[in-house]
Amino acid sequence: MTSGNTTEWQTVRLGDLGRVVTGRTPPSSRPELFGERYPFVTPSDVALGVRKAPTERFISDEGADFLRRIILPPDTPSFVCIGATIGKVCLTDAWSFTNQQMNSIVVDVEQYDPRFVYYLLVTQANRIKSLAGGAATPIINKSAFSDVEVDVPLLPNQHRIASILSAYDDLIENNTRRIAILEEMARRLYEEWFVHFRFPGHEDATFIDTEQGSIPGRWEIKLVADTFEIIGGGTPSKKEPEYWEGGTINWYAPTDLTRDKTAFMDKSGIQITDLGLKKSSAKLFPPMSVMMTSRATIGAIAINTTEAATNQGFITCLPNENFPLYLLYQWLRANVETFINLGTGATFKEITKGTFKTIPVIVPPHDIAKKYQETVEPMMKMSLNLQRKNDNLRAQRDLLLPKLISGEITVSEGENNLENAVA
Q: Which of 68, 193, 368, 420 could pair with 364 as two cysteines, CB 3.0-4.6 Å apart?
């Protein structure tokens, strides 16, 4: 094949790019095989459009010896090959292992660039997914995965293409680290002031004993119902197209929050119309409220940046002068375990609005709450700006990715696009 950049490309099998490795989970009877040494990647760790996959579990040195034949070096592309999330891809950044739901390519670096192979798999994910067999659970076995044919350019152009696309992901990952630092600073300040009571002026405070423990004398214990307003949500009838088609009102479902896992939400996956809002129990609430999922997954939390509504799986909390936005946001995050423990239900747990309203809140004096808001607000605004920069970078990368990988545009054009993106 000849691409738009006049560089010769060749058709190869995925198995020709290197050694295909199917992962494995250590036996549960051998807990010593797990530890803190080597990342153990599973499909739930991998997010769409995110190059790295932070893991919840790790393999020990003993486990690495047990699984030594399937250890993956850094920069190994790994592809989810079974289940509902088939087609997600990540790139290892350390010596790692995966479970059996993932096939990885230990790339032959003398002929192929591992980063290029990662981006190649991203563009081919839907095509590979379409080849899945299995009625109940889709699966691409190692043999079928290895036999998938793809087009690749010569190694020098692989390097250039990978460098362009990696530059976008490097910027995104750097911004993500900055966001994490800013949000951690805000969280720790909340903990310092409102959990340990080391707020400005605490040296002169007197403390009193309460059912909630020892608290500063000027502080109060109130119920949620007396501290801030809460509202629920609803779903317009799916049988009425006029409730949905052409909608402009952001309408959040729990998957919006659990998918993005960001502090702020600019846009929901689905929008509803004014008529849909009026004809349902969904309620419009103002920007800079705090949405919290209240059923099935309890405690996914985010701040909406536009007027919005939610489905019935939410409790949305409205900040006020005495309990301002970032104090409310941090209080919710700090008490997720409490909310989960208060959940009831046989099929899935739910914390009802009635139960939520009865939760006690330690409320600081107005001046302390205001001071926290003023201190943290610049950090959170910077976090939001970085999040939006990442959204723009992802959009540009995703637009460029298939065109570069297929040869539709030249590498020089891709490099020009990158320069404009970072300018």
A: 368
